[in-house]
Amino acid sequence: MTTADHITAAGIRQRPRLRAWTRGVLAGPLAFVASWILMAGAALYLPEGAAGIDNLVFPVVLFPLIWAVLFLYALLDRRLLRAYVVIGLVLASHGGLIAAHLGSVA
Amino acid sequence: MIKLSQERTKELLAIHGWSGIILGLLLYAVICTGTIAVFSTEIGDWSNPLDGPATEGLPPNINALVQELGDQVDPAYRDQFFLYSSGGGRLMLQFEGHLEQDGDDDHPGAEEHYGVLYEIDPNTLTLLNRTEGPEAMLDAARRATDALADFFVDLHVRLHIPNPWGLYVTGVLGLIMMVAAITGFLVHRHLIRELFTIRRNKEALLRSRDAHVIAGTWTLPFAFVLAFTGSFFSFATSLGLPAMAMVVFGGDQERAIAEVFGEPPATDETPAPVANFDAVIADATARTGARPNFIAGSFYGRADSQMRAFTPAEEGDLTGRSPVYSGVTGEFLYDKPVLVGQSPSAGNAVAALMAPLHFGNFAGIVSKAVWFALGFAGAYVALTGMLLWTNRRADQRAWQRMGRIVHWMGYGLPLTMAMTPYGTFAGRWFGWPLETAQWTAFGLAALAALIVALGARTAARARDLLVATTGFALLGVPLVRYATGGPGWLGAWSDGLMTVIAGDLIMMLGGVICLGLWRFGAGTSAEQAGQANSRPGRSNPQVTA
After folding, report:
1. Which residues are bridge partners to B294 per DSSP?
2. What's this model's pTM, rounded to 2 decimal places?
3. Are B324 and B307 contacting, i.e. CB atoms less than 8 angstroms apart?
4. Stretch (H or E) spanning A79
């Protein structure tokens, strides 16, 4: 197996220990960071409600559930690459939203 | 019934088991201490009573004393003031301001919270203690009145790890518990049947698995709610609010707090009289139907002063109310949502639900008792889960050792918790620093439990020794309480201190149950399955996975 194979999907599939680590990184730190970014970013598009605070409160209240969904999804999706793509999309979309908002405020 | 493939069920079982075993020991500690913390108010009243019973809500006729004490406080330290009850029903009156420390133009001095804390007997309205100093000193004085309950609550909330790290740890433990509850639900192939199934004639490991599943299934919704609300409490202020401040308000925490908790009134530093506290309490009682148990105010003795009364939930409501008053005239200004925002909202309603769901205090002692029982069952599920996991692997040396550690935590933690009152009472009696005395008792018990758990010939023997010692320790608690200056039963009865008598009886009942388990019980089924566990380090051919 060449070095290049190590980082391809096929390479990872053939190496159970590497596969376990790769999935562990996705389900552990990456899923947690994605939940946090999703929570913070959701405050920018959720409705503010009558008192102007619903968009701030609901993401914070739902944070544990968001994490549980991403965590279990990261562990259970048989196609590891797809799981990386989905969680990467969550990170990129909400991270981008936050960056654009902070850029406009500055 | 949820249909899953065998392979998917295996994966979920692996997630369920590993999520439990990796942080299960700490999770067990959080559940056990949380179960006890449900009765934190009662523990405070039992462990440090006054000569009369604790009243519900703030006591009557306090205005003259509060104003007299307030007038003695340096105006620099009257930015905020609080009235609340502590252990034994003590009335606490706290003033706080900012102490500017020395600095120069380039290095301005940091501002430190500084203030005065009065401890008042609500029955006689006499001053018991006065503490003046920085926030940490006020905290220590406040904690001293409620030391035992605070010790357990702190262990539950942040495992005594400094903030925010302790909150992060317990938040992650809450998430782990939630995953264990979700996966536990998903792997049930026959949910209803498993609520009632225990195979008595089968081998010990199967029976223990059935006992774990029955207890786990009955408490599944509760475990999920507790885990969800618990991780919310841990992460809301340590991660949630800072995230909102950073993202929505560009890092401006003050603006975030003003948005969520409301803008302060316009500044007016003109000296002004102070509103009548008795009148404010009476109005809040009439307006909400419940007597306030907490008052928070700002700028005592100034024209811009306001005070906010917090009342407990009335029957049929899940949350209390918090009317706001002028701190000068005592005039009612408006009803403020208890938690967040300036007007009623779905966000406030949802956030306000978290507390009663987590603390179980929405229907008085009855709901607390139910929460205690369900918490106890949750601790049983966590312990039997870990015992099952280690017993199934008891032919491997590393898992044998892990099994002993599970015994240490599983049966040693109740012992350390039973010993903590010894430290509290002795510390109060001899005038030792209370926290040091509590940690000494707790630490020595933990060390003794570790020696027993690792040194006993078998795991079952370790369990027997620890359970028996816990029984004797619980039986001795009322004696130590009495010997260190606490009221006897006759005195408590005549003073109306029913919590003292009830607390002693519960300790004694707990002790008798432990001794009964030691003498006649044979341990949890999970443990029976692995009771032949020999001393860690020796292989055990009798136990099969």
Report:
1. B84, B310
2. 0.86
3. yes
4. none
